[in-house]
Amino acid sequence: MKFWSIKGEWPDVDHPKTFSEKVQYRKIHDRNPLYGTLVDKLAVKDYVAEKVGAAHVIPTYWAGTNLSEVDWSKISLPAVIKPNHASGLGEFLYTPEDVRRLKQNDPCAEWLAIDHARYNREWAYSQVDRKVVIEQMLSKDGGIPWDYRCFVFNGRLSHIIIDTRTDDQGYSATYSREWERLPFYDPDYYPPYPEEIPRPEQLDLMVSLSEKIGRDLDFVRVDLFDTGDNLYVGELTLYPGGGFEAFEPPEYDRLIGDKWQVAKSAG
What we know:
Layout: H1 2-7, H2 19-29, H3 35-39, H4 44-52, E1 60-64, E2 79-83, E3 91-93, H5 96-104, H6 108-112, H7 116-120, E4 132-136, E5 147-153, E6 156-166, E7 169-176, E8 181-182, H8 203-213, E9 219-226, E10 231-237, H9 251-257
Antiparallel strand pairs: 1-4, 2-3, 2-4, 5-6, 5-9, 6-7, 7-8, 9-10
């Protein structure tokens, strides 16, 4: 029903053609044992280090299930706290007062109770040993660095979606591997950024890192943060938007889907 409400049609998961259908296909059919590691925001750090080097891994300060076990004297602020098995959750810790409020309103039990696999039928999350992670907060020019979401099919970068903010308004822009502006976007997400985004100085490194990480997979989204002096892998995504993201113009759902040969890792 969710797919129908967004797309106005039922997905063909037996003979998928669009990108959205192929995400649904992966959710239903693909049980690659590696996937549990890839979606685990803690375990994936070793995988990333093996593929592209530890320099591109965000340092971890602590991981566990009980905040009372944290030795806060060893946690450098600012920091980020988040669950390793769910999306859209986490808190920024800038000051000792933020830490005090965190301990007073401890979210860990609520986070750890989330069954992301059941909620969105994303099997890989059922393989994750749920934990809470505290890691270094990245910054650029005194703010949060931009998030470059790199879509990689069979080891080749297809396009990058960039999220940015201007005057508290979120925007999105999509660029090709060669940094040409692409016209599609998700109308249910941020509106298109009204200006051109300059070619990142580290674009060649973005391409190299994302393609090395995605070399052995039919599709993966590699999220990179650009701090100016380095690129860090934020997370890997196997089911972008749960396969429910809208495309405008809608024909790009099929055009992007044509790049994904699902048979490579289907099991």
